[in-house]
Each structure stands twice: as C-alpha cells, then as structure tokens.
Amino acid sequence: MPAALLALAISAFGIGTTEFVIMGLLPEVAGDFGISIPSAGLLISGYALGVVVGAPLLTALGSRIPRKTVLVGLMGLFIVGNVISALAGSYGLLMTGRIVAALSHGAFFGVGSVVAASLVAPAKQASAIALMFTCLTVANVLGVPAGTALGQALGWRSTFWAVSVLGVIGLVGILALVPKQTTVPGAGLRSELRVFRNPQVWLALAMTALGFAGVFASFTYIAPMMTNVAGFSTGAVTWLLVLFGGGLFVGNLIGGKAADKKLMPSLYVILSLLAAVLVVFVFTAHAQLPAAITIAVFGAAGFATVAPLQARVMTKAAGAPALASAANIAAFNLGNAAGAWLGGLAIEHGLGYTSPNWIGAALAASGLVVAIISGRLDHTRRTTESLSTERIPV
Fold it and tell me: What distance in Å separates the CA atoms of residue 71 and residue 256, rounded to the nearest whole number?
C-alpha cells in the first residue's frame, strides 16, 4: 500500500475520534456550561446533521478543484472546527465548532475514498478504501477511550486540542505524501449531479442506509442490553465495547478483501450474516459468555459491509464517484439515526431490551433484498464487465 494512504488513515483517525469522543465527555461539558446531560447530548446530533449536510454540499462545491486541494481544504476546516470547540466559551459556540468540524467529515471520506482507490491497482481498490475506514474503527477502539481519559484528567478542552494536533499531522501528511490530483475532465456540479439519474446509485445508497440502520438499531442499546439482560456490571460495558471494536477492525479488513474479489456476492453474504447474527443475538443476550462472543461477531459482520457498500456506490457513479461516495457517507449517518430511533421505539413500547436486535435483523434483511434487486438489474442489463471485476471510476 502506498505511503499516501497513511496520511489519509491518520486524518480518518482524527475525524473518527472527534465524532464519538464527546460521548465520554458529556458530564464534563454539561457541568462546565451548566446544562443538562440531554442538552449536551445534542452535540452528537448536531455533528451528525453537519455530516449529512456537508457531505454532498462540499463535495459538489469542490467538483472542479483538484482532489488533493479539496482534501487539504477539508482538513483545514476540520482543524478550525476543533479549535473553535477547544476555545468555546459557551454551549452555542461549542455546537458551532462541532458542526464546522462535521461539515468536513462526509466530504473527506467521500473524496478520500476516490483518492485511495486511485493510488492502487484496480484489484486492490476496495482494500485501499477499507484501510482508510479501518482507522475510523481504530478511533473507536483507541482514540475515543484515550480522548475521554485525557478530557477527564485535564479537562474536556484538552481533548479537542489533541484532535486538532491530529488534524495538523494529517494535513501535513496529505501535503507531503498524496500525489497531485488533476481535475477530472468535464467535472462540475451538473455532471456530478447527473449520476443520481442512475437508479443503481439510489439502490446502493438504500443498501447502505438499511444495512447500517440494522447495525445501530442494536448497537445503540448495547449497554442496557448487557447490564439488564445479560447481567454484566456497568464497568464491564467498557471491555465489551473494546471487544466490539476489535470485531469492527477485523470485519472491515475482511470486507475490503472480499469486495476486491467479488463485490456483489460479498454483499449478499455479509448482509445475510449480519441479519443472522442479530437474530441469534436475541437469544445469546441472556447469557454472558454467548453474549460477549456474539458482540465480537456482530462487530465484524457490521463493519464488513463498509468497504463493499462504499465501493458499490462508487462503481455505479461513473463521472462523479466523489459526490456519490460522499452521499453514501450521509446514508451511513441517516441509517445510524433511523436505526437508533427504531430500536428505541421498540423499547419504549415495552418489547424489551433485546427487541432492537429483531429490528436490526429486519433492516439488514431489507438491505439484502435491495442488494439482490440491484444485482438482478446488473444481470438483466448484461453489463460488459462481470460483477467480480467491477472497477471504481477514478
């Protein structure tokens, strides 16, 4: 793998850390500004909204600019947002900093996915994308706990300063290591938007939203599920999340390699596995050892979908893979929000803490149905390339 991927990976690690680290610092932020925990929790929602809005918007605005320049600008925006957060003297200013940082999130992964794919041979494109997203999973396993510990020891502002430093390192790495990216001929907002006339792009986005809605329907309520159903102590939830994070790491790499070999067949298998694991989780959640094992497998199955889903939307977006890729990041976040809402709805209606697993399984199965429909459309149109050799247009 080229050294330039390291710069993208470091940047991805910083972005992943700043997205989720606020979860561990809500009490400190709430106490500092004299607000409630739920109000502080809106900082997470504000970030998610920034991702959904910023992903397609900034990618489209940068469609005529060389991709390396776009990546540099996005990392600069990310640094500015985190510096604003670190200096924030009010809740409103902290929210502003979070949203500014979030605007760069989706566009960076969208453009970065295309750049990563352009750095390697066609047969390794999905693996290159997976490597960048692996650092997003590593951020959950290492960056978030480390950032939380730093914030609790030295104040929550220190965490945002540390993430800003990561952003600077990533920015310098992109400048030094990523080769010059020429402007794509014919690029422009109109040509970028034209790809959304392709039904396959929308089917790919639907796969992403449904698949990750399935993951987050269950994952959002892992803590109460494990403490109230499996009987784990509150303190044990931390290592269970580390176990889940280890599964994410392994699954992401496996998904990338599988997608390089056979893209659509890998999606059929992975989405089927995800749905099956969530059904099994309904029953294994009642005993500690089976629950712990299932959590690790769940993490692997959930994140094994990331690289294939990202690669799928990019292969169907000839002429504007960056915008479609960024839209896919927005779809991930929409799926996260929808899954969490549906899982919570099931609990609120008295269906129990394991009910989100049923919801997640149904959503993952729906994603599988969409994938099968999309695959059948490929077969019907008798594409000139076999599905196993689809290439990302970079």
Answer: 22
Domains and CATH numbers, the chain: 4-183 (1.20.1250.20), 192-389 (1.20.1250.20)
Q: Is 379 exposed, middle or buried (0-12, 13-18, 19+ CB in 10 A)?
A: exposed
Which has the closest alpha carbon to 246: 254, 257, 234, 256? 254
Q: Tell me: the pLDDT tens digits for 331-361?
A: 887 887 788 788 888 888 888 889 999 999 9
How far is residue 333 CA from its own chain's centroid? 7
pLDDT of 288 above 80: yes
- The whole-number pLDDT of residue 181 equals 66
Amino acid at 293: I
Q: Using an 8 Å Cβ cutoff, are 353 and 222 in contact?
A: no
Rounded Cα distance between 298 and 177, Å, is 35
**Cα 323 from chain centroid (whole Å):** 16
Token digits for 8? 């993208």
Q: Are 343 and 281 in contact (CB under 8 A)?
A: no
- Tokens in use for 48? 């998610």
CA distance 305 to 266: 9
Region class of 183: left (phi > 0), else alpha (psi between -120 and 50), else beta:
beta
Nearest CA-CA partner of 17 in 215, 124, 155, 151:
151
pLDDT band, residue 206 (cuts 50/70/90)? very high
Q: Are 130 and 252 in contact (CB under 8 A)?
A: yes
H-helix segments, the chain: 4-20, 26-33, 37-61, 67-87, 91-118, 125-138, 144-154, 156-177, 189-194, 199-219, 222-225, 236-261, 263-284, 288-303, 306-315, 321-348, 355-380
Are 274 and 159 spatial neighbours (Cβ–Cβ below 8 Å)? no
pLDDT averaged over the chain?
Answer: 84
Q: Sorting pLDDT into bands at 50, 70 and 90, what band is 189?
A: low
Output the DSSP codes for 136-202.
HHHIIIIIHHHHHHHHHHH-HHHHHHHHHHHHHHHHHHHHHHSPP-PPPTT-SHHHHHHGGGSHHHH
Burial 111-133 (b: 16+ CB within 10 A, else e): bbbbbbbbbbeeebbbbbbbbbb
